[in-house]
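[job 4471] stage=fold_predict status=RUNNING
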Amino acid sequence: MPTLLIIDMQVGMTWPEPVVRNNLQAESVIARLLEDWRLRNAPIVHVRHISRTPGSPFWPGQPGVEFQPALVPLPHEHVVEKNVPDAFINTGLERWLHARGESTLVIVGVSTNNSVESTARTAGNLGFKTYVVSDGTFAFEKTDFDGNKRSAQEVHAMALANLHGEYATVIHSAIALSTA
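[job 4471] inference complete, writing structure tokens
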């Protein structure tokens, strides 16, 4: 059974207005995957971003740093705390996975073009068989380098395109549930 890697599903990610993000159902998709992994007693890793920037919603001790109530890790589930977008950098995640013989990851969380994409790229580069769940991830609208405002769906779609076929395989949650 692959390891479910849940990235940055923290309270602070619920604060932006819903109109600036896509996949408003992502939290329910992630909760469904989490429930399935738990029923199968399969490996789960929760990733939490701890900011190095004072005043950030993800600064230690701020309410935004806490896991969303529906996605709180159980005591036996592994938690990784990171300070940069990539969950493999300075966290011991790679060592934890190898020590348990885990070679396949199913990645969900936020944001598609930031922490999800950087973590999936590294996972693929490290040789993990990596899947990214398209409806279990989401992004926020962003202005591109040329000054054009891009919708959250455009940002999300481009991040998935960047990953698919090179670093990861992008799948729908129905596939993740049927093959897990």
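[job 4471] summary: The chain has one domain: 3-179.
[job 4471] exit 0
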